[in-house]
Amino acid sequence: MFNVLLDLPKTFSVGIDGNFLSSENSPFQLKGIKLVEPGVHFIHLEDLNLNLRSGIWINGKDDHTIVIDIKDGISDLSVFVLNHMTREMIVRPSSDPEDVDYSMEVSKILDTMSENFPLMVNYSSLNTKHPHWESLTKYISFPRLLDVLQGNSWFTFPISTLDASKQENEYLIDKLSKTSIEKNPDRIIESLRKDDYQMRFSTIEFNKTARPNATASQVTQDSMDKSWFVETKLLPGLLLEFQLSFLLFMILNNASAASHWVNIIKIMLNCDSLVEIKENLFMEFFDCLSIQLKIIPEELVASSDSMVNLQALKASLTTFNETIESPKVRRSFNKVKDTLKLQFQFEDIDFLDDI
């Protein structure tokens, strides 16, 4: 088991995985989460005054304590790791010199944790409150997380509500580079290039999915059927990115993650030939999507004012429903249709008629 020690203002809430906790209406200030099972977990914080959120993925290991401290706002977290059995600092704050002696600091932290242990939430008491979490993170492993989020072998760097993806930063860099010299965009461009917290999702541009050196017929084929692009550019990390972008969208309310999640859905619904050769991929994909749709708050996806409007997927869903031939994939796809009908009142959509 491991522990997460927190030093947060009372106006901050904290959560782990799919559980949300708060000190705001509590007689005591929450000081952390104790006795957490080893493995990959998501720690997320919210500044209730600003309605901003931030989160880090952690690779928890037995006998360790992860300390999270707010330095200057929700996006500026100090995170370090110590072994509370050997009293050794494993990961030091990045701003500290290499030759710092941490023996006194570790002793203070362990004394603080001992005092605050009664004010730390027992993870086992939360474990049954989000039954879908294991399914929502089925394809998320820590080494693969580091392909998308920057970090070290213990935790990822914080991602906040306002952080952008690498693709969005590159788009802004391109636009700024074409700005006249008088507007002097160099400083902003350099800042975007050095953004430590950008999400490195795979780039999906629907007008750039043709294979290199394609013939005219291949260009036409690749514009209508995205199978080549998905198979060669998005695999094998597609399901991880699909689950990760969904969780960063739902928990952190991150717009870049929301956009990537929708783009993956749209492109997977336009892969006619790939369905025939990768049935398992599509079964797993639609199983993931059906669970996601069951638990996402309706206000995030169900109106024109939402960050995502599921109604915008109507055409792609209808086309896929009309062309799908694999009985196995159809069974998984039908779970999505059932959820859309029950959760989001999609009764007027033609493709639901054959449920």
Automatic annotation (TrEMBL):
Family: Belongs to the AAR2 family.
InterPro entries xref list: AAR2 (IPR007946), AAR2_C (IPR033648), AAR2_C_sf (IPR038514), Aar2_N (IPR033647), AAR2_N_sf (IPR038516)
GO biological process, one term: spliceosomal tri-snRNP complex assembly
Domain AAR2 N-terminal: 4-147
Pfam families: AAR2 (PF05282), AAR2_1st (PF20981)
Gene3D superfamilies associated with the record: 2.60.34.20, Aar2, C-terminal domain-like
Name assigned to this protein: BA75_04610T0
AAR2 C-terminal domain span: 201-346
